[in-house]
Design brief:
about 35% helix, single chain, about 180 residues, alpha+beta
């Protein structure tokens, strides 16, 4: 079963209401969401959802990578899917995982991860951590049964890095394209 953009938009309204409340209570102001992360049940739902988006001409770019035992697609839409957010990180749930599916998190661009860390440290009751995979790192914070990820880059930058690494594996030096 495919996940529709309406499903994502509705979930985003609920998510960002929770986030806005959490952010104002914890001094996290002027944060700009860049990406909505959506976790699918399995590879079949991932494929059906991605295929539906690609078929309707609402997508301008898509990068798919295999990271942490699952596929992740960074999808850029022509129109925002929530306020100014045009990027969807569609994630296959890892095999044998029981993680919840649906809107998993949002990425928020920050200039300085150290500043966010300092703000989070002011409240010892907050649950947060530095996280990373083989390509990049971020700070995750959990609130109201959901998660926000603070990054100093876009998920699109991760795709560029992955492609540059593959270019090197193939024996070439990545070139800047003007």
């Amino acid at each position: 079963m495919a996940i529709t953009l309406d499903d994502i938009k509705q979930a985003a309204v609920e998510y960002f209401a929770k986030f806005d409340s959490f952010a104002s209570q914890n001094g996290l102001i002027d944060l700009k969401p860049t990406t909505i992360g959506w976790k699918t049940t399995d590879i079949s739902e991932f494929n059906a959802t991605l295929s539906g988006y690609l078929a309707d001409s609402s997508v301008t770019q898509c990068h798919i990578g295999f990271v942490d035992q699952r596929y992740i697609a960074s999808i850029v839409f022509k129109e925002p899917i929530y306020t100014n957010v045009r990027i969807l990180k569609l994630m296959q749930r890892r095999p044998n995982s029981t993680d919840p599916v649906g809107l998993d998190h949002a990425d928020f661009a920050v200039d300085n991860l150290g500043q966010i860390e300092a703000l989070l440290k002011k409240n010892p009751a907050l649950k947060w951590s530095h996280e990373s995979n083989e390509v990049h790192g971020w700070i995750s914070v959990w609130f109201n049964d959901t998660e926000a990820k603070f990054v100093d880059h876009l998920v699109l930058d991760v795709g560029v890095k992955e492609l540059q690494d593959i270019t090197k594996e193939l024996g070439f030096e990545p070139k800047k394209v003007a």
